[in-house]
Amino acid sequence: MPTRAKDSLRENRPVHDIDFAAADFQRDPWPTYDWYRENEPVSLSRRYGAHFVFGYEHVRRVMTSPDFTAFHPFRVSRRAFGPTMLDQDGEHHTRLRSAAADPFRPRAATEFGRRVVAPLAGRMLDDLLTRGHGDFVARLAERLPMAVVCHVMGLPDGDAGRLRELMRPLVEYVDHGTVSLEQVVAARGELRSYLRAALSARPGADGLLNALAENGTLDEADVVNTSVLLLAAGTETTAAGITNVLSRVAAEPEVFHRLREDRSLVRAVVTETLRHEPPLHVTLRFAARDVTLGGVDIPVGTPLQVVLASANRDPAVYPSPHVWDPERTVRTPFTFGMGRHVCLGMGLAQQELEIVLHGVLDRVEELGLRGGPLAPAQGRTFRTVRDFECVYRLRSGGDAVRTT
Hints:
By secondary structure, the protein is α+β, with helices and mostly antiparallel strands. It has one domain (3-403): CATH 1.10.630.10. 51% of the residues lie in helices and 11% in strands. The strands form 3 sheets. It has a 5-stranded mixed β-sheet, sandwiched between helices. A 3-stranded antiparallel β-sheet has the order 8-9-10. The chain has a two-stranded antiparallel ribbon with strand order 5-6. Helix 8 (136-153) packs across helix 9 (160-174), helix 9 packs antiparallel against helix 10 and helix 10 (181-201) packs across helix 12 (220-233). The chain is globular, with a radius of gyration of 22 Å. It starts with a helix and ends with a strand.
């Protein structure tokens, strides 16, 4: 590249390199993603000692090629959850994933949504909406995902609150919060003891926990660690998804009215929101061998921060990518990943978000956003819309109710 072009490129760089901890980056990472995708789609970050990968095609290659692996013995997620399918490849990954897959297959997820998720969401919405105060979106997002995962696992409904509290240090640790490894180890120990006790107390009971134990190909550590991972994976991103979908619809009253008239649009609204504001922006991979990506030589073992969110807003795939447009008909976004590590529960998560939106449409006549425009999602690992107010009016009539 000529010197003048290099100087121009440097002058137009973002104000700072990628810094997950920076408040302005957490508020709005999109301009930074755009610049790197156009100028340095495979970029070495000295701050993190990793290559960042931007753009649809580069992200797709890393997520699907055997040149890259999810395995590394010292991943943060492994310190939090123990060895799981999240950070395994090859035969071990296949065995763990296959053992847990049945409840998440499309037909099973659809039936579970109809039989379990819809009644759960309905009862919670009836309770929260008719109270007339409090933040119904935040409360629903906090309560529903863990209740759903408890049903999947075959754990008592009454234990959902306790499990949320025990999971909190593990999730915060993965999200690079201030929680210490000592706190993580203590909470994980309690979770493991709880799960072992649940297996002993209810042998042969329905649910994935006992199905894993009876699988015959897993040892106890596999069963417990897989269960801990599913408790985290099925709650944090789904909670963010619920908040992002409902806040977006509240910010678009005309879309809410169209949904009231035509429920066939619900799936498109959920899918587009997951593209536009994905709950998870980045996932980690490692070079399985010496490889060249985007013209950059990457030695074996090198970590790569794969920016899924940048693929979701790549203008080469999604015209006007920063515009939220539920009428899009182009490719499925990378929100749930791709390839052999695509999110196991993606079908159930999509079902859950659609059911929640249907539930609100069933009960609410008018839904809107108080004040200015909707703020973008914020966060580091898990990203969700915060600090918004809604107004709503129940279908049975009455005054608008404020939620904060």
